[in-house]
Amino acid sequence: MTTDKRGVSALLIQRQLGLSSYETAWMMLHKLRRAMVHVAREPLHGEIEVDETWVGGEQAGIRGSRQLKGRKAALVLIAVERRGRGSGRVRMKMIPDFKATTIIPFLQQNIALGSTIHTDGLKSFGGIKEAGFNHVARTQPLRSELSKGAKSSVPLADRAIGNLQQWLIGTYHGVSKPQLQVYLDEFVFRHNRRKTPAAAFQTLLGLGTGRKSTEYEQIRGAKDLEHNILGFAESTR
Fold it and tell me: Which band of pLDDT confidence, cut at 50, 70 and 90, is reported for residue 193?
């Protein structure tokens, strides 16, 4: 779970450990996912790209919060450090809407003040400078232009979004809504430790010992999660 970039599904864990119950394997993995965020982790710093995406499909011709009405997909906010031409650490969070009042607290919680934040030109990113960051906003080319080679305004964030989508589809195939945040946490945990997989294994063991045990019924309904509004995760069905 910590060393393979594809992660591991509950079905595979069930087979490898010879468990009679799929739900047991599913619960084991979810207990580990819930231990993957260190409350004292260092904020991102330096040059940061921030973008949003829908998990679960897109509605053509509509952007932003208008997508939420009657929609089953989840809205996710992504922040990625620039490290030369490559990506540094990542943060991802499921959000209820794409308003400045939602975005700014995410930035303040996850990015060091004084950092330079790169975004596209959407109005929802207004107020970033006033919140204590440097802000560089560039108009994002249309998708048709990007497919023809136009340069994205946030290429590293786009790459992280693509990797997230491929991972959710490739490893889990089908997902249900309430658990998305812990899957985002798993993706972030593994990405941020991709160069030190052995350390990632030890880190998760250490974080796990510091968490109170969560009962299966609490996990199954995501009743223990604070952000139980939208999302995607493996189903126990």
Answer: very high
Region of 53 (left: φ > 0; alpha: ψ -120 to 50; beta: rest) is: beta
Q: CA distances (Å), 165 to each of 54, 62, 128, 159, 171, in order?
A: 10, 20, 27, 10, 10
Nearest to 168 by CA among 97, 76, 99: 76
Q: What is the phi/psi pair of residue 76, to 5°?
A: -130, 135
Dist CA 135 CA 110 (whole Å): 15
pLDDT over 80 at 77, yes or no: yes
Q: Is 31 exposed, middle or buried (0-12, 13-18, 19+ CB in 10 A)?
A: middle
Query: Which amino acid appears at position 179 of this protein?
Result: Q
Q: Both tokens of residue 214?
A: 């969560």
Is the dihedral angle over the CA atoms 140, 146, 151, 156 positive or is it negative? positive
Token digits of residue 103? 């975005």
Residue 35 near residue 207 (C-beta atoms within 8 A) = yes
User: What one-letter code names the amino acid at 18?
Assistant: G
pLDDT tens digits along 170-180: 888 756 668 89
Q: What is the signed CA dihedral for 118, 123, 124, 127, rounded to 10 degrees?
A: 70
pTM: 0.86
Model confidence at 183: pLDDT above 70 = yes
